[in-house]
Amino acid sequence: MRNLLQDSVERLLADAVTPEMLHAAEAGIWPVDLWADVEALGLPLAGVSEDFGGTGARWTEIFVVIRACGRTAAPLPLPEAIFANSLLATAGLQPPENGPIVFASGSHGDALKAIPWGRHAPWLVLHEPARGLIGLHSLADAEIIPGVNIAGEPRDTIRLATGSLQAEAAFGGDVDAIRAGGAMLRSAQIAGALERLTDMSATYANERIQFGRAIGKFQAVQQQLAVLATQAAAAGAAAETAFLRADAAFDSLAPAAAKAVASEAAAKAAEIAHAIHGALGFTHEHNLHFLTRRLWAWRDEYGSDAFWADHLGRTLAPLGAAGLWPRITAVLPETTAP
Prior knowledge:
Elements: H1 2-16, H2 19-26, H3 32-40, H4 59-72, H5 78-90, E1 101-105, E2 112-116, E3 123-128, E4 133-138, E5 143-145, E6 155-159, E7 165-170, H6 175-207, E8 209-210, E9 213-214, H7 219-246, H8 253-277, H9 288-298, H10 305-316, H11 320-329
Parallel strand pairs: 1-3
Antiparallel strand pairs: 2-6, 3-4, 4-7, 5-6, 8-9
């Protein structure tokens, strides 16, 4: 399943997501055909069991889909849709058959802020921690105030209309269950973006001639490329660990570690990539900014590295020396290996 998903989504996004599409998306144009292709492959329902109309993929298999979205800077809420539909199915609710779907945590009577791609989604999954409920809401008559992040991606404020609720069910956990899920998604997207950023920087360093030779031949540049590759590898390993852990029992520890590592790597990697590309990399005409602006935005969404490092400290410190190692080694049970 993992190889099939990886081949399908990477081929689709590599061919479809062009600089022209990304510029159009930042201008507010929804990629209708790309979303239709995504739905035709069944990707939004990948994490939903067959009983609810999905393919029943494990999170470790879904990881390659989310990573590909980050690698290509795909301008659509596929990661959000996969997680939102999974939330519904986990609660015993039937996911919608089609259309983008996003998720949030809060109260149905309050303004829901910075909702990714809210203006393009007909559906929203809302977790209400105070009531212990999760519900599917229609956004047909919702009040939507447009907003964007630094990458130009929609991050909208939504006020649900009266009568928007379509179905609801009991749902355990607290607000961090949603935040942790979003953090896990962003960690994988950051990992994918860092992979491509490393490839682009290495290619440019080997093509850019300065002082009679490629700048990639200079030891200082080689050292920076090595640091960039290391940051990408660390983010990828941490993110994949979180998805692997989610197959066993979803909690906030692995997503916290993944997002802390990925967010820190995003900041360092973007700085290195722009240093290697020089002035050219800061122009709007060069494609580098499609990745670096998303890295700058994603590193803070659903909790920054500082936020999750604090969470890890508060969670692990009370265990003491005797409890720390068993807690860490329990994160990867052998039965969940891909």
